[in-house]
Amino acid sequence: MNGTAKISLDILNRNWRLLFVGVLLSLVVHIVLFGIYVSPQEEVQEETVARIEFQYEKTPFAVAPPQLTRDFAFRKQAVPQGTPVVRSRSEHTTTVVGGGRGGVRVGAPASRMWSSRGGSADFRVAVGGTGPGEAIIGMPSFESVAITSMKEPEKRIDMQAEFLDLESINTGKYKGMVIQDPTDKRNVKGFVYLALAWGSVLQPSRQRAITQLVRAINGYTSIQAEVDDQLFLDSQDLFKAPFVYITTSRAFELTKHEADNLASYLRSGGFVVADNDQPHLEYGPAEASLRAMFKNALGRDARFVQLGNDHPLYHVFFDFEGGPPPGGEASSLSPNRTTGKASPVPYLEGIYLGNRLVAVYSDKGYGAFWEREFENEPHLKMGVNLVVFALTQKGSIAEQQIDFYNQAGRQ
Question: What CATH superfamily classification does 153-410 receive?
Answer without folding.
Answer: Domain of unknown function DUF4159 (3.40.50.12140)
